[in-house]
């Protein structure tokens, strides 16, 4: 996997749409510590009434960057790299988590003592969201899920939760930067419900907070990714890999660390990323088949594929979708045959050539 991540290094970061005229409601502070240290200095604007951000030190884990970020979805794949980068520059990171206390444990070690603060919350309880946001000046939303469960629909996780966070951040009054992580290919007209929900989430966030920044990464690659690892496990277990629709769909995988860097870069800029939507793709476009070849090369197995036509792949994936809400017990999470992912992968998903629209 190392070889792959190296080959996929360096994202291309293209702003695609400025949703509204970027009128910052937050006056930029002309007094910020670290302005002469471009490597670590954050240019985060202070909100009216909040006073200046306190920045101390030369940078690094034991400094104070002035950023106090609540990172929703920090317990996931991208979260671990983002928290690491935020902690490395001396930011305090509030980590809302649900479930077991063990979920955010790996993140605690990334920052100086007391800098990573796991906080139990319930995404359906407004007060608990307010509590985890209370001390923050930055909110980053990484919450997302590419399959439905009995408890949570695509819309609730990818749209309504994002909207709720934006509403609460607006009410809070002291949130200087809000970053919403969506997905490349999200569109209200997508055949995939997940991508439609993601697009609705972006729209809702920008409606509440026009100065929010939206990041739309392509499929992310890295040690814990859910594409190459999944394929590798399948190929090792069954000695073949199903290639849905012949694997000719084009994708532009991006290295997860680059996505985390793009988010941190947006936080550290002079406010120019506020109100913008960025598509984040890797340096190369691959067909699904080419990427699978790379996976086989990495696991040192002889490539063996079984071509599954699209309608058959959908037929294999369908029973889970039909039964999900009908049976009184949880069904296994979908793996390669995820109906929504099959729909999403039916069309090419690459970074658009558009520059900034406004
Ligand atoms: N992975 C990719 O290839 C990829 C590509 C493009 C865009 N994205 C987007 O980038 C973001 C981060 O991706 P990722 O790969 O880091 O995702 P991930 O590993 O699946 O992590 C998702 C995070 O969202 C949280 N979450 C999921 N369902 C939730 C719910 N019902 N209530 C509260 N929290 C919930 C998870 O919390 P728990 O740990 O408690 O479940 C976890 O912290 C997501 O929005 C994703 O859609 C991902």
From TrEMBL:
Lineage, top-rank taxon, reads: Eukaryota
Alphabetical GO CC annotations of the entry are: mitochondrion
GO terms, molecular function: protein-containing complex binding
What Pfam families does this protein's entry cite?
Epimerase
Which parts of the sequence belong to the NAD-dependent epimerase/dehydratase domain? 70-281
Under what name is this protein listed? NAD-dependent epimerase/dehydratase domain-containing protein
Question: What is the native source organism of this protein?
Answer: Gossypium raimondii
The beginning of the lineage is: Eukaryota, Viridiplantae, Streptophyta, Embryophyta, Tracheophyta
